[in-house]
């Protein structure tokens, strides 16, 4: 579906993303995890060769296949459900980077599994993620994430395989002679908007659309981030707010596929920072159990806006990485319930002890679930000097 030339370009873009995602440059001998799903083997092979050529040590890891993942969640007993292979923690302590290549050949294979079992396994893996968060905060780790087109993704998105691959190529600029140069230019443009946002003394945000009326408090010592290299593609500009100031209602008009389940039409009501009511047109029981995963799962971890002038994504892609960067006619906003991003702290993230994170309202959870709204919307900011300004309208920032 992607040509050999496009795969080589994609690999170059991913290496740019990996390099951009880390504070310090990589050095020869650094260890890079290359985690991929089987349909993306050709892209993983291209990335592997390019990492070797740069003197890095790639560690390839194939994720569970659909039959293996289904067997695990159906058959694992209580001990097996939380089992972590020996050496996983040691590997994570020595990783300098990671590249994750998504290429699912099924999106609904876990729909009959008790969501509590999926949540239990996710909570058991959280200590490994915490190691990488700590290393990233210290500047020792970077990561990037991408998607390889599959027939299943195309089917669930209502496209042919050719149409789906074409949208991936467009979104990642793989038709351009030098996609990396396009990403570098876009990086500068997004940085200008980030600088504008970070200079504003924002006290609160009010997001309004046909089905959204939400108030978000950015919080103290925060900064906006965007196009950090972590996600390819990425056009969003986001922050991790003080979860305690969230109130109002939110609606996700985009479906999402999560842990082998399709969830559609999610509606959340926030009071005093917590989700107090949740409904969904499809997958409501699963959604409820996700938000009951742990104490932080029903709190806000991220608020994000995508400017339609940047994104070439015009269709639903049945994958959050693309859908949260949807451009279309109206851009999009998305919120994530669950864990926050400590790199949105405007100081040295290494200063953030657990107690300090709690004090600032950074949320902690094993969950991070992005929920996307593509309705026409306006976002107003209330500033410390008492002014109200329009931050975002008609699918783009007011910058």
Model description:
- It is a single chain.
- The chain has 2 domains: 4-179, Thermophilic metalloprotease-like, CATH 3.40.1830; 189-397, no CATH class.
- It is built from 12 helices and 19 strands.
- It has helices at 4-20, 41-53, 66-75, 78-81, 88-94, 115-137, 151-157, 161-171, 179-199, 284-291, 320-323, 354-360; strands at 31-36, 57-62, 97-102, 142-147, 202-208, 213-216, 225-226, 236-239, 247-252, 256-258, 261-263, 266-271, 274-279, 300-306, 332-338, 368-373, 378-383, 388-393, 396-397.
- α1 crosses α2 (41-53) and α5 (88-94) packs parallel to α6.
- The radius of gyration is 20 Å and the shape is globular.
- The model has no long low-confidence stretch (mean pLDDT 96).
Question: Secondary structure elements and their pairing?
Answer:
Elements (H helix, E strand, L loop, with lengths): L3 H17 L10 E6 L4 H13 L3 E6 L3 H10 L2 H4 L6 H7 L2 E6 L12 H23 L4 E6 L3 H7 L3 H11 L7 H21 L2 E7 L4 E4 L8 E2 L9 E4 L7 E6 L3 E3 L2 E3 L2 E6 L2 E6 L4 H8 L8 E7 L13 H4 L8 E7 L15 H7 L7 E6 L4 E6 L4 E6 L2 E2 L2
Parallel strand pairs: 1-2, 1-3, 3-4
Antiparallel strand pairs: 5-6, 5-17, 6-9, 7-8, 8-14, 9-12, 10-11, 12-13, 14-15, 15-16, 17-18, 18-19
Summarize the structure.
Helices cover 33% and strands 25% of the residues. With 399 residues, it is of the alpha+beta class. It has two domains: 4-179, 3-Layer(aba) Sandwich (Thermophilic metalloprotease-like); 189-397, no CATH class.
